[in-house]
Amino acid sequence: MYSRTVLILLSVSALFVAGCGTAPPADEGGNTTTSQQELTQETTVAESEASLEDAAQRYHEYVIEQSDLLVEDTERFTDAVIAGDVERAKELYAPARLPWERIEPVAGSFGDLDPMIDAREGDVPEDEWTGFHRIEQALWEENTTEGQEKYARQLLEDVKTLREEVEGIELKPADLVTGSVELLNEVSATKITGEEERYSHTDLYAINANVEGSEVAFEAIEPALEQQDPDLASEIEERFEAVYGAFEPYHQGEGWVNYTELNESERRELSQKIDALAEELSQSGKVLGA
Fold first, then answer.
1. Which terminus, N or C, of the chain has the lesser number of Cβ atoms within 10 Å?
2. Residues 224 and 214 in one domain
3. In terms of Cα–Cα distance, which of 174, 178, 182, 276 is closest to 224?
4. Of 145, 140, 210, 134, whose CA–CA distance to 179 is shortest?
5. Same domain assignment for residues 196 and 276
6. pLDDT tens for residues 152-211?
7. Rounded to whole angstroms, how far apart are CA atoms 288 and 160?
8. Side-chain-side CA neighbours of residue 48 (13 Å)
9. Tens digits of per-residue pLDDT, 36-47?
């Protein structure tokens, strides 16, 4: 038989071991007060925030990539202008502008560079008007490059400056959402009318590039959005597909038909598809707190 002393020691040991393994305090229903659901939500939020920071970084890399392409394509275009090759310059005009249109929310944020590169006639005083559209007018309205050499050289210099500027820009996750939505709203409100490319009528190149750029921004934030609201993420994907489907009939070779070939009804359909996309995309900012 155990001695009284041994029994006391065994009892104390048992109590000590039991105390070390005690479960968290429980409520009246027997549930632990430390909610696993709360811990899961906190983890999800932390993962979402990290994903958004990564999204901003990846989109910045895309902006740099497109800025490099803008310099390369603009140089080919301006070389043709300087050489006096009207047909070659016309051929290269719209493709040269695509990288700009894809990153316009960022590219357009650099003070004077935006009007210097992209101002339309009437946006600035006549003696300050430079950039793509100044040359566009000469090519299509006058069918000449005469007098455009200085504008071509200045344009190339300006896009090179833009490339330097985007290197150091700090983008926040909110910039991806707000910039994309604002750009789509601008497309629907003004570009869809045809006033952007009023001489060349290459509007479909620009509008499609705007949508492409918005899609890249969305794809960057999509992993975080899927964690918070997978249904919304899926809906936005469908909206992008609907917009591209609306564009499909107007493909011509590797480019697009002249915008004057679209009637009012066809332009309105494009506008409605883009509006629907912008509305859904704007909801992602609310969900993500961006």
1. N
2. yes
3. 174
4. 210
5. yes
6. 999 999 999 999 999 999 998 888 888 889 889 889 888 999 999 999 999 999 999 999
7. 34
8. 20
9. 655 455 555 556
Q: Is residue 17 part of a domain?
A: no
Mean pLDDT of 230-245: 97
Q: What is the dihedral of CA 109, 115, 120, 121, to 10 degrees?
A: 150
CA 145 vs CA 100, 119, 133, 152: distances in Å: 22, 19, 13, 10
Q: Do 283 and 184 fall within a single domain?
A: yes
Domain coverage including residue 126: 54-171
On whether the CB atoms of residues 284 and 221 are closer than 8 A, the answer is yes
pTM of the model: 0.82
CA distance 15 to 127: 91
- CB-based burial, 130-155: b 16+ in 10 Å, e otherwise: bbbbbbbbbbbeeeebeebeebbebb
What domain count does the chain have? 2
User: Residue 150: which CATH number?
Assistant: 1.20.1420.20
pLDDT, position 46: 53
Q: What is the mean pLDDT of the chain?
A: 86
Asked which of 121, 153, 171 is the last residue of a domain, the reply is 171
CA gap 14, 134 in Å, rounded: 89
> Token pair of 15, please?
């109590």
